[in-house]
Amino acid sequence: MIEYPQLTPNEYKGPKATLHTNYGDIEVILFPTQAPKAVENFLTHAKDGYYDGIIFHRVINDFMIQGGDPTGTGFNGESIWGHNFEDEFSDDLFNINGALSMANGGPMTNGSQFFIVQNQHMEPAFASQLAGAGYPQAIIDAYVNNGGTPWLDHRHTVFGQVANGMDIVNKIALVKTDSADKPLEDVVIENITVND
Fold it and tell me: What is its EC number (predicted)?
């Protein structure tokens, strides 16, 4: 197994999925070894068409883009099991820029919603804080050089990483939004194709 597989997405041999949006395609690699339930949930929903036609309902530039709610409100959506499922935190995965993570309303409240980390900037001072917290150097470098949201680590389950299409994520992050961070014009996940 590759240590810190997010750092070498093009070498990854595991399952992949492509989010086909009205802004372009976003290809993600998925990590069933570290987050088996989150990956199963996402892949099953994708294959069943659960995510087809839904929007990214929450978009905050230099933070993340969030979708996965069939009502587009941010208050709904359920797992494939019909109830919330537990967090799956791994010492191999982090909320670095491009991470695909479960959105939640607190511990153990995972359903269908997910987000892609889009923070491209990290204050250099964060490096010493991460080092003090015991982060591996390779991950500290990834945070400092490419950005991310380390304050979400061990709060939101990371279960994938963008391998291709960060330019699309960045384009989506720049759309105009209302006071609730909802895009004024829909950013739509038309469908998701799976290669597992």
Answer: 5.2.1.8
Count the neighbouring beta carbons within 10 Å of the beta carbon of residue 109: 14
Does the residue 5 lie in any domain? no
pLDDT in tens, the chain (196 residues): 568 999 999 899 999 999 999 999 999 999 999 999 999 999 999 999 999 999 999 999 999 999 999 999 999 999 999 999 999 999 999 999 999 999 999 999 999 999 999 999 988 888 999 999 999 999 999 999 999 999 999 999 999 999 999 999 999 999 999 999 999 999 999 999 999 8
63 noted as active-site residue: yes
Q: Is 89 a catalytic residue?
A: no
Catalytic, 155? Answer: no
Domain that holds residue 87: 13-195
Judge whether 185 lies within some domain: yes
The CATH number for 17's domain is 2.40.100.10
Which entry of 19, 58, 118, 161 is annotated as an active-site residue? Answer: 58
> Residue 2: inside a domain, yes or no?
no
| CA-closest candidate to residue 110, choices 72, 151, 69 | 69
Active-site position among 41, 66, 97, 119: 66
Distances (CA, A) of 161 to 12, 15, 66: 10, 11, 14
Number of folded domains that form the chain: 1
